[in-house]
Amino acid sequence: MSSCAIKKSGADKNMNAALFDTKWQLTELNGKPVPNEVNGKQPFMSFEKNENRYSASGGCNGIGGTFELKSTKKIKFSQGMSTMMACPDMSVEQGINQMLGKADNFELTGDLLILKQGTTPVAKMKASKATSASTELEGTWEMDYVLHTSESFQALYPERKPTITFTTAEHKVNGNSSCNNFFGDYKTSEGNRIKFGALGMTRMFCPGNGESVFVKNLEKVTRYSVSEGILTCISDDIVVMRFKKK
């Protein structure tokens, strides 16, 4: 017996390459139009070539998981992990979660990406090139979520929220843990990978667990995403911290 393989053309490879390094704004979901902003944020998806991960938002929580390209146009999504905020309008986020379980192929033409279930479109998106990592991370960010099960965010940080400032030209960070000032460095790599180095800190006594929770979660961060002034820090597929641009 003999077998044959389907050889991908150069055009096919270029088409798949265009899927990455692009922020895709959701314009239609499960046959219904998606507004430009939901809860003041732009609904989007993005695809990371390194480790085949996707990020998405319906205007509330960050959603992240993995995907598999089975052939030139076949795709399969894992059901994503997400933060657990409650927002006034959760309809687009719920639609994204439904769509991820349906989509099994895609069509990419120029700046238009269509995810389909068979021949039926389940999501339509238009491309808007993501800004560079330097532009995305530069500046000061204030934390508004941290992964911690035994105490609420307000209980951890009753008076002051942690902040972090990126100086991207030097790959340096500094900020405040809600008590002590800190400084250090970081490295980024393809696929929005990030690793923070050891932090130097002042040594004031700090009541409560806020500072230790902040530092321990920062050490876990392996990836990040930035969208509409929100910095999401991820460990594997779990969102461990989220910051707003100041």
Automatic annotation (TrEMBL):
A Pfam family reported for this protein in Swiss-Prot or TrEMBL: META
Record-given protein name: DUF306 domain-containing protein
Domain of life: Bacteria
InterPro entries for this protein: DUF306_Meta_HslJ, HslJ-like_sf, Hsp_HslJ-like
Domain DUF306 intervals: 17-120, 156-243
Gene source species: Sphingobacterium paucimobilis HER1398
Signal sequence interval, chain numbering: none
